[in-house]
Design brief:
Elements: E1 2-8, E2 10-11, H1 13-31, E3 35-39, H2 51-60, E4 64-66, H3 78-83, E5 87-88, E6 102-106, E7 112-119, H4 130-141, E8 147-153, H5 157-167, E9 173-177, E10 187-188, E11 194-196, E12 201-204, H6 213-222, E13 235-245, E14 250-260, E15 268-270, E16 274-275
Parallel strand pairs: 1-3, 2-12, 3-4, 4-5, 7-8, 8-9, 9-11
Antiparallel strand pairs: 1-13, 6-7, 10-11, 12-13, 13-14, 14-15, 14-16
Length: about 280
């Protein structure tokens, strides 16, 4: 059975939530999406997530929420991380950290998707070895889910690419989050895993990574502390749609997607995707 999985890049503040509220359900219906995964670690004013935002994202149509290095920025999310089974933090944080690193989502079509969150170690805060954790998770969940999707929240492109090759053929998709800039290297690796270094940002693109240009420039130019205010211009939803065969457990295609909030912003659509044979498929 073929399933379509939408993976949404880092949601930044109110603009990111607004475009999901207005555009997500229509896109899911038009494209017959079977599962929506969204990284929401920047959803609360640009850093962290609250229980209120968690419930809003589910209402908008998100099925599984992944997080990253700002997972514990809002303390009131911690009890929810312990009880909810559809919001996950990086699995390779301390074993004593609140929350879980894997979510199982049973699609309406039948097959189950295991969503895994991992965090990188290059230019990031200390974490356990993500490769060892990936091995352990795959061994544990490969009999519980037909499809495994990995959100690798990391800074260094080399570390993300290495993870893609390490998991090639063992999971359906490895995609990067955290850097907020969409990369143009989507591909199906040799053994069938869909890969892209970063799926980008859902928020204001007339900005520096979702923040107002003026405040970020002031910080860079003066080295003085200043608040990084959330920008609100040119709002877009960035992500990918991956088509996976639940029988073979590997990807058939990967397509970059960018949806504009403003109808004058060139509308919505994808970049032109890649099929398993390496040809343009969209």
């Amino acid at each position: 059975m073929k399933l379509k999985i939408l993976c949404i890049g880092d949601i930044v503040g109110r603009p990111g939530k607004r475009i999901l509220a207005e555009k997500l359900s229509g896109f899911v219906k038009d494209k017959s999406i079977d599962c929506v995964i969204a990284n929401a670690e920047n959803a609360a004013g640009g850093s962290g997530i609250t229980p209120q935002i968690y419930h809003k994202l589910l209402k908008y149509g998100v099925n599984v929420i992944t997080l990253g290095d700002h997972v514990f920025r809002k303390k009131d999310i911690i009890p929810l991380l312990e009880t909810a089974d559809n919001i996950i933090r990086p699995a390779n944080l301390s074993a004593k950290a609140a929350g879980r690193g894997v979510a199982l989502y049973k699609t309406s079509a039948g097959p189950t998707i295991a969503v895994v969150s991992l965090i990188g170690r290059v230019f990031m805060k200390p974490a356990e070895n993500p490769y060892d954790y990936a091995d352990s998770i795959i061994s544990k969940f490969q009999n519980q889910a037909e499809i495994i999707i990995v959100d690798f929240h990391a800074e260094a492109t080399s570390e993300k690419i290495a993870m893609g090759y390490y998991l090639d053929g063992r999971v359906a998709c490895v995609y990067g989050t955290h850097t907020h800039v969409t990369t143009a290297d989507e591909k199906i690796l040799k053994k069938g895993t869909a890969y892209i270094t970063d799926i980008g940002m859902t928020g204001a693109h007339d900005s520096v990574l979702g923040r107002k240009v003026e405040s970020v420039l002031k910080n860079f130019r003066t080295q003085m502390p200043c608040p990084f205010e959330i920008a609100d211009g040119d709002v877009r939803m960035s992500g990918i749609v991956v088509t996976v065969d639940s029988n073979s457990r590997i990807a058939e295609s990967i397509e970059r997607v960018q949806i504009y909030l403003d109808s004058e912003g060139n509308g919505s659509g994808g970049s032109g995707g890649i099929n398993a044979d390496g040809n343009n498929g969209f």
